[in-house]
Amino acid sequence: MRNAYAVSDRAPTVGRERWGPITVLLFGLLVLAWAGNYLFVRVGEQEVAPLWLAALRAAVGAAGVGVYLMVRPRASLTGADRRDALLLGIPNTAVFLGLWFVAARSVPPGEAAVIVYTFPLWVAVFSPGLLGARIDARHWGAILVGFLGVALVSQPWTGGVSRAVAIPLAELLGAAVSWAVATVLFQRRFSPEQLASVNGLQLVSGAAALLVGAAVLGQYSTPVLSLDLWISVLWLGLFGTAFAYVVWFHLLRSVHASTLSAYSFLVPLTALALSAVFDGERVDLVQSAGVLCVLLGIYLVGSRPLPAPALARGAAAESRGSPPDEPGRRD
User: Fold this and answer.
1) Which of 56, 151, 158, 181 has the highest local Cβ count within 10 Å?
2) Mean pLDDT per segment of 10 residues, for the chain of length 331 residues?
3) What is the 3-state secondary structure (H, E, C) of 235-287?
4) Of all residues in the chain, what percent are helix, strand and coil, respectively (each to 5)?
5) How far apart are CA 326 and CA 243, in angstroms?
């Protein structure tokens, strides 16, 4: 899984970006994988409770990432590194997936994707306090435009947002906030070389925490492995998590992180299209304007990454002896 929105453009790429046919194909598959997640959550939740489905996704994703790590060089991790990676699995996987999957029972897949993808706006909001990054007028403008879009999508002034709808929307925003906070903390704590290993660890702890949450909240029933559940879990865990994770890091070899982040607005846009075709989702004119505002905010924040703060870089480097960089991605 992935924290894609870097606060600085420090991808492994050096010099000009290379958008060949294979790169374009892989990016298209990446967008499809992440957008399809929102539709397959809806499919899986017809068969199993939300927290069970989230735990299965994280566990299968961790297994896929583990196989990947077995065939590639891995950075060494200290005991403190492993501890912090496991702890970050709570906000980065357990809280994020838990809130999203619970809300997905009441919110259409496309709308859910738009709300969750306010995540880069929250990253920009939290970066000054947690990383010491500087926010300029363009970033604040993008943040305001994005949050205006959220208001247009939810339309609270109409009086039509009942408690039954408001709570799931709040859960989706909470998921986006949790994902954003974890992203900034990854940025502060780990170096790029460590990301493969720490992402695998945080998936494992996230899956364990989700199982505990399912037990605490009374979701005791063991899932029945129907064909629909198998398809949903395999998409969410293997294609939507492990495969997307490998492709993301492969793309970083030829494309700057800020470019990939800027074009990530295609994920909620694709999710809306998939939901319209397969789930019958429709949005009215005002909501369509809101979607465009959110997508514009995502693009503006991603296309001009925040400058890397020297204070955060120095503190993280002192703790592990290497310079920090951007976190990995999961969606």
Assistant:
1) 56
2) 41 57 91 95 92 95 91 83 95 96 92 89 81 77 87 67 70 93 86 82 95 81 80 95 86 74 85 90 86 88 60 37 39 61
3) HHHHHHHHHHHHHHHHHCCCCCHHHHHHHHHHHHHHHHHHHHHHCCCCCCHHH
4) 75, 0, 25
5) 19
Q: What are the phi and psi torsion angles at 74 (to 5°)?
A: -120, 145
**Structure token digits, residue 262:** 């800027």
Number of H helices, E strands in the chain: 15, 0
Q: Determine, yes or no, domain membership for 95.
A: yes
Read off the pTM. Answer: 0.82
For CA atoms 319, 205, 264, 25, the dihedral sign is positive
Within-domain flag for 15: no
Residue whose pair of structure tokens reads 């879009």 in the numeric block: 149
DSSP state of 10: -
